[in-house]
Each structure stands twice: as structure tokens, then as C-alpha cells.
């Protein structure tokens, strides 16, 4: 097979990333994180777009250099069209358009949520690739969905959050505990040292395969405030146990819904995607489900869970094979369904 080099560009939120693929293999995946947001306790959209503007050229140059090719060898340019923060998306979109025009190669618009899922088709030495149809639990800072994936671009949302995303539940809980943004990875870290049964939080009652996390966040807030009034050192003394209990509750909610989805569809090939799929507890629980429920699970490598351009490039490659190109008049879209 002739090598096809695709450049992927991701700028939907607070990470500027560029990646070059050769067919379905990743040659480079460069990510510039934006430290600036941590002191604000969340992503500040205006600051994010300015940082993208500053990072995009060096990040793309690095991705091409690390792939050991010249930009003239690229076959196409894929970029994140949405969903995401408008100002951030515009930086990647405009840059991708200009470069594609300059190089006179096809431009490919990619849906960020589809790309999280299609990261499973990156070819590595040791990875399992899911067969169609499979279910994907897509969990990130902006989304929480159970998606039935019938084919590369045939996806159906079976359930999704009616309020906060699961990543938000992690990050907001962390904020209540005084941890910096993004708090998800920190909750994961402290939870490893704590007792997941130390405190119990009620699971939300929400229909069918949908999710709700805003009630849980409020319950955690009231619980912590009350305990702090009794003992002002509560958070400090019990941080590990609190984190473990919060994480346990969130993962229970996710697993319950996944079990329902398997029951409903009869599909036992289960993948996870999105930033929260880096969480060690959800990874453990899925591995256990292989034994207990006879599921086959697909867990992405860490570097392909949180936002990255490798997933945009692989999706671009799959679209390239279909000749699914975009016009240069294509626009970014803050809201976009899978
Ligand atoms: O997919 P992603 O990088 O960006 C979005 O598209 O939203 O996901 C970021 C989210 C954040 O909420 C972050 O706290 C969460 O993923 N996250 C984690 C872990 N690593 C990242 N949440 C729990 N445990 C982790 N290990
Ligand atoms: Zn994402």
C-alpha cells in the first residue's frame, strides 16, 4: 500500500495538537498544553484561543519534523470542525484551510467526538481493534455518551448526559476539594490511596441510558461543607477517602449504564474513549467485566484518551479513503453531534 501522510490538527478546547499519520500508523503526536487555565479553575475561552494562535505554527512544524517528512509529502489535512469552543476551533480551522490551499491538497473536516471513538483504529503493534458493531462509552470534559458504532461514520447515540459531563463531575468535585484544574487526574491519583466505601453518595435516578451528574456534584458540595463545619481539617485529613468515594460513585454510574446498554443491544464489544477513559478505576472495572460478563473491552492508550491530534489524523485518513473532503468554505461548529 502506498504511504499516505495525513496531518491532523486539533484545537477544540485548551490543547493545541498536531499529528502526522502514515496510513493508520502514528508518526508523530505533538501536544502543547495550556498551563494558563489552571489558576482560573477552568478553561478561559478567550485565553485558549490566544494560546492556540501562538502555539499552532510551532506545533505543526514539530509534528511534521518528527514524522521525518516534508510538508510537500502530505496527502491531506484534517482538522477539528467541532464540537468545542468557537474561538479555539477557528484557529485550527483557519490554519488548516490556509495550509491546504497553499499545498493544494484536500481538506478534511473532522468531528471531535467521532475522532475520540475512531482513535481505536490507530494501528499499533499490540492493540486490539474493535469489530463493528461495538458500543463506545465516550467520556470527556464536555460529553458523556453511549454510542452504538455500526461503522466508521455510522454512529448512534443511545444515551447521553442531561446536564454535566462526567469530566465536569470530576473537575467540579476536585474544585470543591480545593484541587487545581483539571482535577480529574488528581482525584484518580488520591483515590488510589483511599477507601472507596468510606463515604456514600446517592446515584442519580435518570431514565434509560441517559446520565446526570449535577445532583451528585451538589451532594458532594453539601457533604463537604457540612463535614468542614464539624471539622475544619476534614478535607485535609480525608482527601484520599473522599476522592476514592467520589470516583467509585462516578464509575458505578458509568458501569450501570453500560450494563443496561449491553442488555438492550446484545452487543458485548465495549470500547471507551475521551479524556476520562484515562481514569484507572474505569479501566480496572472494564477489565473485570471481561471476566464477569464476558465482554470484550477496548481501552485506548493513555496518549489517545485526552485531546490529541492523532485521533483527528486517523479519522482524516479514514475519510480520505472515502474521498470525503471538505470545501474551503467549511466552517467551525461549536455544537456538532456524532
Ligand atoms: O477529552 P478531553 O481531553 O477533553 C474534552 O474533550 O473535554 O477530556 C478532559 C477531561 C477533563 O475533565 C479531565 O479532568 C478528565 O478528562 N480526565 C480524567 C482523568 N484524566 C483526564 N478524569 C478522571 N480520571 C483521570 N485519570
Ligand atoms: Zn475531547
Automatic annotation (TrEMBL):
<keyword id="KW-0479">Metal-binding</keyword>
<feature type="binding site">
    <location>
        <position position="171"/>
    </location>
    <ligand>
        <name>substrate</name>
    </ligand>
</feature>
<dbReference type="GO" id="GO:0005506">
    <property type="term" value="F:iron ion binding"/>
</dbReference>
<feature type="binding site">
    <location>
        <position position="112"/>
    </location>
    <ligand>
        <name>Fe cation</name>
    </ligand>
</feature>
<feature type="binding site">
    <location>
        <position position="279"/>
    </location>
    <ligand>
        <name>substrate</name>
    </ligand>
</feature>
<feature type="domain" description="Gcp-like">
    <location>
        <begin position="25"/>
        <end position="313"/>
    </location>
</feature>
<dbReference type="InterPro" id="IPR017860">
    <property type="entry name" value="Peptidase_M22_CS"/>
</dbReference>
<feature type="binding site">
    <location>
        <position position="188"/>
    </location>
    <ligand>
        <name>substrate</name>
    </ligand>
</feature>
<dbReference type="InterPro" id="IPR022450">
    <property type="entry name" value="TsaD"/>
</dbReference>
<keyword id="KW-0408">Iron</keyword>
<dbReference type="InterPro" id="IPR000905">
    <property type="entry name" value="Gcp-like_dom"/>
</dbReference>
<dbReference type="GO" id="GO:0005737">
    <property type="term" value="C:cytoplasm"/>
</dbReference>
<comment type="function">
    <text>Required for the formation of a threonylcarbamoyl group on adenosine at position 37 (t(6)A37) in tRNAs that read codons beginning with adenine. Is involved in the transfer of the threonylcarbamoyl moiety of threonylcarbamoyl-AMP (TC-AMP) to the N6 group of A37, together with TsaE and TsaB. TsaD likely plays a direct catalytic role in this reaction.</text>
</comment>
<feature type="binding site">
    <location>
        <begin position="138"/>
        <end position="142"/>
    </location>
    <ligand>
        <name>substrate</name>
    </ligand>
</feature>
<dbReference type="GO" id="GO:0002949">
    <property type="term" value="P:tRNA threonylcarbamoyladenosine modification"/>
</dbReference>
<keyword id="KW-0963">Cytoplasm</keyword>
<protein>
    <recommendedName>
        <fullName>tRNA N6-adenosine threonylcarbamoyltransferase</fullName>
        <ecNumber>2.3.1.234</ecNumber>
    </recommendedName>
</protein>
<feature type="binding site">
    <location>
        <position position="116"/>
    </location>
    <ligand>
        <name>Fe cation</name>
    </ligand>
</feature>
<dbReference type="InterPro" id="IPR017861">
    <property type="entry name" value="KAE1/TsaD"/>
</dbReference>
<feature type="binding site">
    <location>
        <position position="307"/>
    </location>
    <ligand>
        <name>Fe cation</name>
    </ligand>
</feature>
<keyword id="KW-0819">tRNA processing</keyword>
<dbReference type="GO" id="GO:0061711">
    <property type="term" value="F:tRNA N(6)-L-threonylcarbamoyladenine synthase activity"/>
</dbReference>
<dbReference type="Pfam" id="PF00814">
    <property type="entry name" value="TsaD"/>
</dbReference>
<comment type="similarity">
    <text>Belongs to the KAE1 / TsaD family.</text>
</comment>
<feature type="binding site">
    <location>
        <position position="184"/>
    </location>
    <ligand>
        <name>substrate</name>
    </ligand>
</feature>
<keyword id="KW-0012">Acyltransferase</keyword>
<dbReference type="InterPro" id="IPR043129">
    <property type="entry name" value="ATPase_NBD"/>
</dbReference>
<keyword id="KW-0808">Transferase</keyword>
Amino acid at each position: 500500500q502506498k504511504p499516505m501522510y495525513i496531518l491532523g490538527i486539533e484545537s477544540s478546547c485548551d490543547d493545541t495538537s498536531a499529528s502526522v499519520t502514515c496510513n493508520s500508523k502514528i508518526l508523530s503526536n505533538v501536544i502543547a498544553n495550556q498551563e494558563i487555565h489552571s489558576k482560573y479553575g477552568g478553561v478561559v475561552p478567550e485565553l485558549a484561543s490566544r494560546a492556540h494562535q501562538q502555539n499552532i505554527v510551532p506545533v505543526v512544524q514539530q509534528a511534521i519534523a518528527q514524522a521525518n517528512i516534508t510538508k510537500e509529502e502530505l496527502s491531506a489535512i484534517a482538522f477539528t470542525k467541532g464540537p468545542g469552543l468557537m474561538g479555539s476551533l477557528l484557529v485550527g480551522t483557519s490554519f488548516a484551510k490556509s495550509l491546504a490551499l497553499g499545498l493544494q491538497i484536500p481538506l478534511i473536516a473532522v468531528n471531535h467526538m467521532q475522532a475520540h471513538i475512531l482513535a481505536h483504529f490507530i494501528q499499533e503493534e499490540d492493540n486490539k481493534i474493535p469489530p463493528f458493531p461495538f458500543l463506545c462509552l465516550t467520556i470527556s470534559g464536555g460529553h458523556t455518551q453511549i454510542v452504538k458504532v455500526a461503522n466508521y461514520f455510522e454512529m448512534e447515540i443511545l444515551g447521553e448526559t442531561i446536564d454535566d459531563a462526567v469530566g465536569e463531575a470530576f473537575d467540579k468535585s476536585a474544585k470543591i476539594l480545593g484541587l487545581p484544574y483539571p482535577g480529574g487526574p488528581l482525584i484518580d491519583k488520591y483515590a488510589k490511596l483511599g477507601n472507596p466505601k468510606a463515604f456514600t453518595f446517592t446515584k442519580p435516578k435518570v431514565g434509560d441510558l441517559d446520565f446526570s451528574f449535577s445532583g451528585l456534584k451538589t451532594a458532594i458540595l453539601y457533604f463537604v461543607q457540612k463535614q468542614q463545619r464539624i471539622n475544619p481539617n476534614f478535607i485535609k485529613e480525608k482527601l484520599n477517602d473522599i476522592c476514592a468515594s467520589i470516583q467509585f460513585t462516578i464509575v458505578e454510574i458509568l458501569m450501570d449504564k453500560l450494563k443496561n446498554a449491553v442488555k438492550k443491544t446484545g452487543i458485548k464489544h465495549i470500547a471507551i474513549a475521551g479524556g476520562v477513559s484515562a481514569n484507572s478505576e474505569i479501566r480496572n472495572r472494564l477489565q473485570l467485566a471481561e471476566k464477569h460478563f464476558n465482554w470484550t473491552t477496548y481501552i485506548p492508550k493513555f496518549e489517545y484518551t485526552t485531546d490529541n491530534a492523532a485521533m483527528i489524523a486517523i479519522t482524516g485518513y479514514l475519510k480520505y479513503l472515502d474521498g470525503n473532503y471538505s470545501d474551503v468554505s467549511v466552517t467551525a461548529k461549536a455544537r456538532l453531534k456524532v
